[in-house]
Design brief:
The chain is an all-alpha fold. The protein has helices at 2-15, 18-47, 55-70, 78-95, 97-106, 109-131, 140-161, 164-194, 200-234. The protein is built from nine helices and no strands.
């Protein structure tokens, strides 16, 4: 086991230069703080009467995202931009509150199952991207954007048609798509760093969105399966 771990660590050391490794540490540190902020947002939704998911918090989410995107990194405003990121993550977690309420009413264990599944998926695809040849997965960018546009179009059409097939295609296709974005975004962060972009706050935003989207898709998929199981039992 020790030999395998040493080989694994050496693979990262050989693949990634020290400045890149330090940048990735900062990126994943921001990602960790963002996930904690999102968890706090979910908690506040359940235990606060004054701050819950609604239209105003949705607008606040977009406002903080705009603030982060429109505030360039000048080396002196990292705390401000980190505040934007954590605020965005907090309100994103707040927005998951209604979904959590629905799932808890069905089977609370779904949440932990989805969280573990999301972590395994995210870590596995991230490691695959980090151990691959530099830029190997960047060709996925065009395909992923094309698939994303199709899924968005199907979602828009399904607002009127309400077809179960379109909804399932959106659900499972979206999960597959987010897995691809984990690989693509991870390698893109490395390429951006080599190009001179050291904005680890903004880089971590991409990975946070990937993580939350995978988590949301898994929650809904597991909730559907649990609901179907309950319906079969009643019959």
């Amino acid at each position: 086991m020790a030999a395998m771990y040493k080989t694994f660590v050496n693979s990262f050391t050989n693949r990634l230069e020290l400045p890149v490794r330090q940048h990735l540490k900062n990126v994943y540190a921001c990602l960790s703080m963002s996930t904690v902020a999102a968890a706090v947002g979910v908690y506040v939704h359940f235990y606060s009467q004054f701050l819950q998911a609604n239209m105003l918090t949705t607008l606040g989410t977009f406002g903080l995202l705009y603030g982060l995107m429109s505030t360039p990194d000048n080396g002196k405003n990292q705390k401000l931009r980190l505040g934007y990121l954590l605020g965005f993550a907090f309100l994103s977690g707040l927005g998951l509150g209604p979904l959590f309420q629905t799932i808890i009413a069905i089977n609370p264990s779904i949440i932990m199952t989805a969280l573990i599944g999301t972590t395994v998926i995210f870590v596995s695809f991230s490691i695959s991207a980090l151990l691959a040849e530099r830029g190997y997965w960047l060709y996925l960018g065009g395909t992923l954007i094309w698939l994303l546009s199709i899924i968005v179009m199907l979602s828009f059409i399904n607002l009127f048609l309400r077809w179960s097939l379109f909804y399932q295609a959106h659900l499972y296709g979206g999960l597959f798509l987010m897995c691809g974005f984990v690989i693509y975004d991870t390698q893109l962060i490395i390429e951006k760093f080599h190009a001179g972009s050291k904005d680890f706050v903004l880089h971590s935003l991409d990975l946070f969105v990937d993580f939350i989207d995978i988590f949301r898709h898994l929650l809904i998929i597991l909730e559907q399966k649990e609901s179907s199981k309950d319906q079969r039992k009643r019959k």
